[in-house]
Amino acid sequence: MIETTPGALDRLRQIGAYALDMDGTTYLGGRLLPGAGAFVGLMLAQGIPFTFLTNNSSKSRAEYGRKLTALGLPCGEERVMTSGEATIRYLLRERPGQRVYLAATPSFEAEVREAGIVLADGRADADLAVLGYDTTLTFERLVTLCDLVRDGKALVATHPDVNCPVEGGYWPDVGAFLALIERSTGRGADLVVGKPGPLMVTALCERMGLPAADIAYVGDRLYTDVAMARRSGMLAVLVLSGETTLADLDGTPEPPDLVVGGLDELAGLVSAARKAGGATGSAS
Ligand SMILES: [Mg+2]
Question: What are the pLDDT digits (tens) for 22-55?
C-alpha cells in the first residue's frame, strides 16, 4: 500500500461507502480478480454500501448483474450503474419532455423507454440526439446523427472511451464514433456523461444518497477512474491489477490518494480498519 496523499489511510478508515470499477479492478475479461469475492463479502457482512460503475452503455444493468453473479459475486443489477443510467438520470433532470433520437443497443433503448423518456423516430421530430455504445449501429443511424448535429441539435454521448478492450483486441467505442461525426459535421458532442466526467458522480451520489466525499472510488485507470475521483472529492484508490503500473505514477498530474495491489489488499485494509475502529469505539 502506498499513501500518496497524507492522511488518506485515516480517511479510508472513516469512509462509509465504495464505488468500484469493473474490468481491471473486479474482474479481468471473464476471470474474477484475487480478493474480489472477499471484498464483496466484507461489504455485505459489514453492511457497507457499494456500487459497481462502468462506462459501457452497450449492456444493461441487468446484463452486468448476471455477469457478476456468474463470476460468483452475490450482486444483482441493483449494484450496477452504467454510463447509460447516468445519461438517463441527466435526461430526466435536465431535459424533461424532450424527444430523444437514440443510437443505442436494444438493451439500452429498453432502459431509456422504461424510464419514460420519449424517443424520436428521426430527424423530423427529435429535440436532441443521444449516442450510446451502439454495437448495432447502422449507416442510416449514423446519417441521422450527423443530420441532427448539422441542424444544430444537441448531441449527448454516454461516455468518451475511444476503444473497448475485447478478447483478442479492441472494438471502436463511442469516442471513435464521435470523431467520425465531428469529421463529417465539424461539431462533436455537446456533452459526454461517463467517466471521468462529473455527471457520472452526480448520478452515483443521487443513487447512493451520499455526498462524493463519503465515497471511496476504486479503479485501475489514472485518466478515467482516478481523475474522476479526485476532481469530485471522492477518495481515489488505484489498484494495480489492471492497466496501470507503479511506473505510470511518475509525474502523473492527478495521482491517486492511495495505491493498492488489488481488492485483496484493500479488503485487508478495510477489515483491519473496521476492527481497529470497533476497538477504539468500545474503549472510549
Ligand atoms: Mg477498469
Answer: 999 999 988 999 999 999 999 999 999 999 999 9
Q: List beta partners, residue 80.
A: 52
- Give the span between the Cα atoms of 144 and 268, in whole angstroms: 51
Ligand 1 centre and the CA of 169: distance in Å? 15
Determine the CATH number of domain 84-192: 3.40.50.1000
**pTM for this one?**
0.92
Structural domain spans, the chain: 2-55+196-283, 84-192
> Which H or E element spans position 185?
helix 174-185
CATH 3.40.50.1000 at 2-55+196-283, yes or no? yes
Identify the band that residue 275 occupies on the pLDDT scale cut at 50, 70 and 90: confident
Q: How far is the CA of 116 from the centre of ligand 1 (A)?
A: 31
CA of 165 to the centre of ligand 1 (A): 10
**3-class DSSP assignment, residue 176:** helix
- For residue 169, the cross-strand partners are 166
Residue 204 CA to ligand 1 center (angstroms) comes to: 17
